[in-house]
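Hi V.,

Quick status before I head out on leave. The structure for the redesign project is tokenized and pasted below; the design run finished overnight.
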């Protein structure tokens, strides 16, 4: 096999060596900068997701407390309690329909101690929806 030799002068060899070292340092710096940038971006994104998840959790807790307060407000009405004792569906509807619209609820369901649904009031958007709900019996 023939060997290819390039005849360069001493100044050309020095310049070529200098350019090779500079190019190597530039590439190493570029990789270092890229690694730092991606790590910094990943940390910022992780922090943003963590703060967003905390905010969503707080919103869920607030909504849960609001719904529990509304449920206790509905359940403490004397008219509702007497209608439940008598299983009077008409009085239940008269009492619950205004409360449902006033409180802005999507779904109100009243179950008896045996788990049978006495009244089930849903918004029209929820008619086709199936819920995995269990009867709450105290």
């Amino acid at each position: 096999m023939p060997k290819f030799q390039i005849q360069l002068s001493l100044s050309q060899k020095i310049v070529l060596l200098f350019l090779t070292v500079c190019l190597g340092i530039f590439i190493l710096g570029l990789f270092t900068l890229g690694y730092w940038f991606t790590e910094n971006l990943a940390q910022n994104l992780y922090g943003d997701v963590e703060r967003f998840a905390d905010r969503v959790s707080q919103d869920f807790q607030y909504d849960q407390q609001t719904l529990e307060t509304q449920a206790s407000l509905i359940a403490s009405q004397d008219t509702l309690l007497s209608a439940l004792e008598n299983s009077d569906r008409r009085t239940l509807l008269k009492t619950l329909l205004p409360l449902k619209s006033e409180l802005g609820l999507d779904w109100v369901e009243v179950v008896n101690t045996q788990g049978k649904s006495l009244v089930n009031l849903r918004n029209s958007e929820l008619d086709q929806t199936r819920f995995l709900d269990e009867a709450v019996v105290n």
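Above is the designed sequence. The longest strand covers residues 117-122.

G. will cover questions while I'm gone.

Best,
W.
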